[in-house]
Amino acid sequence: MSMASTSVPFADLYQQYLNLKPEMDAAIASVIANSSFIRGPHVDAFEKSFAAAIGTQHCVSAGNGTDTLYIAMHSLGLKPGDEVIVPAMSWISTSETVTQAGGKVVFCDIDPLSYTIDTKQIESKITSRTVGIIPVHLYGQPAEMDSIMAIAAKHKLWVIEDCAQAHLAIYKGRTVGTMGVAGSFSFYPGKNLGAMGDAGALVTDDAALARRMAMFARHGGIVKGDHEIEGINSRLDGLQAAILNVKLPHLAAWTKKRQQIAQRYLSELHGLPHLQLPHPSAQTEHVYHLFSVCHPNRDALAQALKAKSIQTAINYPRAMPFLPCYAHHNAKPQDYPNAHRLQSQTLSLPIFAEMTDHQFEVVIAAIKKYTLS
Q1: Is the same domain home to 212 and 270?
Q2: From CA 373, how far away is CA 366, in angstroms rounded?
Q3: Could you tell me the CA-to-CA distances from 367 to 153, 273, 293 in Å, in that order?
Q4: How far apart are CA 31 and CA 293, in angstroms?
Q5: What would the pLDDT profile of 243-271 be if each residue is shown by its tens digit?
Q6: Residues 6+ apart with CB under 8 A from 332
Q7: What is the span of the domain harbouring residue 271?
Q8: CATH number, residue 360
Q9: 3-state DSSP of the chain
Q10: How far, in Å, CA of 237 to CA of 42, rounded?
Q11: Is 225 in the same domain as 156?
């Protein structure tokens, strides 16, 4: 969305393109000229570069971020009846893929400050059928991985990190995606590193797992026509890989810019009545895919900002246990009190690397006017 339609857009992907236009156009033209639409040199280059950026030995690209979770669980041997613990607040990809892979979803409430899975509640969710945990680094805030990995080791569970919103986020000096058996990433256009369509990838240091995941994602064979198993068709296409190759070298600078804008938000909005701000841990580097605040009159705040031509988003209007598709869980508000409260209070403010000082000041002024009036 460009600034032509709103004074402060939620994100400005067109401006990002304009800033990189010569490189982007050349990359796209190269794919077309060489007809390298499926696999090919651009995909190979991206897998190597992204693995290096995250700090893992292997990267397995896929058609989208949702597929990566399914691919990982299938490749880890998830069986019917196996239980996987996921946080109550996330995009449905985190949970629906458990079911798709044949498992059973078990929800766990979130921490009221970090919005990531509440590690104090995980062990109460573990049964003899539990095989894994999928922590989500929600909004770009790393989950409490030391506690999660300790619980997983104690109960012999695997951990897949859902890093869809957390490219280059750091937990105690370690990049997210490097602590579990695998890390799942989405390159949906609005992500911190986004393609111009759907795209995703898995990272891991387990060579055997990487091979199984790559094989499953490519119709069951690493070599075309040599199908060792039955698989699926989930491949990163050449155009998206070429676009990501142009963007990846800029990701660190874009991340720093997001963090600077977030720090300004935290400073300018501190102490405003009824407004709960993000609580980044001193031991992590939050990458602020989203800057989400909480307010008891969230909808009224959103309308006040809309009246000033400021675009906001309500990312999760219902926590996952309360979605119609999980009605069979019979979830009650007291089962997931933190997620239930946040679903009606969270509002995501504009934050993007191309955000101007003027745009930022317009947002701050509008929030202050609403909260202080």
Answers
A1: no
A2: 11
A3: 45, 11, 11
A4: 41
A5: 999 999 999 999 999 999 999 999 999 99
A6: none
A7: 251-372
A8: 3.90.1150.10
A9: CCCCCCCECCCCHHHHHHHCHHHHHHHHHHHHHHCCCECCHHHHHHHHHHHHHHCCCEEEEECCHHHHHHHHHHHCCCCCCCEEEEECCCCCHHHHHHHHCCCEEEEECECCCCCCECHHHHHHHCCCCEEEECCECHHHCCCCHHHHHHHHHHHCCEEEEECCCCCCCEECCEECCCCCCEEEEECCCCCCCCCCCCCEEEEECCHHHHHHHHHHHECCCCCCCCCCCCCCECCCEHHHHHHHHHHHHHHHHHHHHHHHHHHHHHHHHCCCCCCECCCCCCCEECCCCCEEEECCCHHHHHHHHHHCCECCECCCCCCHHHCHHHHHHCCCHHHCHHHHHHHCCEEEECCCCCCCHHHHHHHHHHHHHHHHC
A10: 9
A11: yes
CA distance 187 to 62: 10
Which letter, b or e, does each residue of 135-170 get, where b requires 16 or more Cβ atoms within 10 Å of its Cβ?
bbbbbbbbbbbebbbebbeeeebbbbbbbbbbbbbe
* Total residue count of the chain as it appears in this document: 373
Look at residue 6 and tell me if it is in a domain: no
Give domain status of residue 8, yes or no: no
Question: CB neighbours of 146 closer than 8 A, spacing ≥ 6?
Answer: 172
Reported as a single tens digit per residue, the pLDDT across 13-52 is 999 999 999 999 999 999 999 999 999 999 999 999 999 9
Quick one: 63 and 47 in the same domain?
Answer: yes
CA separation for the pair 72, 218 (Å, rounded): 13
Position 62 in a domain: yes
Low-confidence ranges of the chain (pLDDT < 70): 1-6
